[in-house]
Amino acid sequence: MSKKTKTTRYDVAEHLRTPEEMAAYVEACFEEANGDAAFIAKALGDIARAKGMSQVARDSGLSRESLYNALSGERTPTFDTILKVIEALGLRLHAEAVQAPDSKAEHQPDAD
């Protein structure tokens, strides 16, 4: 007789407890997204669920329904919505210069 193993669905929101964990999670998602805005929206949705969707909706000025729709990962929310959500989550968006592999050699001053 074979044994059946019961599994439960993994929910990352249950493991995002601190602001540092949330920031690390969204940063990792940005690195893995490859330009997929819906992927980032879904990651922000995970963090919003961890913090509480009702609270994030209030803090962002969006309705709960709008928030769920925007962060479902099934659509690409507007940048304005993303900025509101990031602020409501207590996160900050920042940019970092990325150097192309060949650009370092091309832009070095001559050693004459």
How does this structure look, described?
By secondary structure, the protein is mainly alpha-helical. It has a domain at 12-88. Helix content is 52%, strand content 0%. It has helices at residues 19-32, 37-51, 53-60, 64-70, 79-88, 103-106. Helix 1 packs antiparallel against helix 2 (37-51), helix 3 crosses helix 4 (64-70) and helix 3 crosses helix 5. It starts with 18 loop residues before the first helix and ends in a 6-residue tail after the last helix. The mean pLDDT is 89.
Strand elements, count? 0
- Rg (CA only): 19 Å
Instruction: Tell me the overall shape.
Output: globular
User: What is the SS-derived class?
Assistant: mainly alpha
Short description:
With 112 residues, the protein is an all-alpha fold.
What is the element layout, followed by pairings?
Layout (H helix, E strand, L loop, with lengths): L18 H14 L4 H15 L1 H8 L3 H7 L8 H10 L14 H4 L6
Helix pairs in contact: 1-2, 3-4, 3-5
Feature tags:
112 residues; mainly alpha; 6 helices; globular
